[in-house]
User: Fold this.
Amino acid sequence: MSKSVAAPKAGPKVGLVSLGCPKALVDSERIVTQLKAEGYEISPDYAGADVVVVNTCGFLDSARAESLDAIGEALAENGKVIVTGCLGATPDLILSQYPNVLAVTGPHRYEQVMTAVHGVVPPRHDPFLDLVPPAGVKLTPRHYAYLKISEGCNHRCSFCIIPQLRGDLVSRPIDEVLREAENLVNGGVRELLVISQDTSAYGVDLRHKGAEWRGRERRAHMTDLAAGLGELGAWVRLHYVYPYPHVDEVIPLMAEGKVLPYLDIPFQHASASVLKAMRRPGNQEKVLQRLAAWRRDVPDLAIRSTFIVGFPGETEADFQELLGFLKEARLDRVGCFRYEAVAGAPANDLPGAVPEEVKEERWNRFMALQQEISIEKLDAKVGRTLQVIVDEIDTEDGVICRSYADAPEIDGNVIIEEPTRRLRPGEIVEVTIEAAGEYDLWGRLV
Ligand code: SF4
Assistant:
């Protein structure tokens, strides 16, 4: 008698459109993890999906427009659409334009997203599909992962609506974060990117309450977090840090090689009056002193930052001050945005709007200066041997890697045009730098 084995029935399919910043990407990863855990499959296209989840961004007006377009496209192509993410915090805006959307939920509302998905297409019961790896399912390449340590923000920067959308700071317990990081590293992740709205404020809301991990008490505090992550043997990169005095405590971890010598500090401006109008802390003198002290201990420290030009009330003198700061600070990686009004942000009521052509002109001057600094800093790396992590192989340009100074997607690359052996994504290798461009470096395998 022959036995016949039924082919496994495919699970219901969900399409996912993920827009926005790395924090939104983490939300998408959590949704995918939960969908997979319940036996759903992820559809790569609209046509094959039983329902489409659109994870939106609502930060800038341009991002809102992009999110609304994405919802319209999903409705036209599939018809069954659930909206989540930052734009979901304003359901009226979405439903007035797209009344056929099935459900709207705000950011981090994974359970509500799942409830809405269940309403459209119930999960297929299959106990084997519950076996999701403990590291979860990631949308980023397997070798790096974003580690979200908190939600929300206690600051009230006048150009930003994140506190309105996401509320005050809510930190995740330290043991939960470290366990997740450990699972990720055990699952093959070689680089952890710590993200939040303000990493230096981690644990303030918990009064830095401690918890045990690996047999030792750890405080919910940036220093203990960085030290714990540094024990895992992966690259650890800190994003969205403020130059507060306690950041000094992570510098020794960088000197010891436990945490990458990289800090992402969103300065936004340097002029005291603009920073005041932005409602941001900041004292140029102190910041420059702190940078100098950090660099004394960790000469290779790479600092990334973002700035806004053309903020309401910014005068030519304020802008000159910003350029002066840039010359002194000699930052490694810099992003610059022309100020753009965000619906609902207090800055919209400020006087002294800067004309678009002035914003454009300042942006060009800013970028030209920073480009000179970047070229000089990269040129100084020619001849040095750096550790790099392999991101992509077999591209037209060669093997694409990153050094400690390059966060994925936002910074530059180190390119090996002619690798002398086969490399794998996630491998960490040594490269001697032979040439430098405006943002990237080229080198050969050691
Ligand atoms: S620090 Fe300022 S810009 Fe960043 S999320 Fe908080 S309020 Fe927004």
Notes: The pocket of iron/sulfur cluster is lined by residues 153, 155-157, 160, 162-163, 197-198 (CB under 6 Å). Residues 1-9, 125-132 have pLDDT under 50 and may be disordered. The longest strand covers residues 385-395. The radius of gyration is 23 Å.
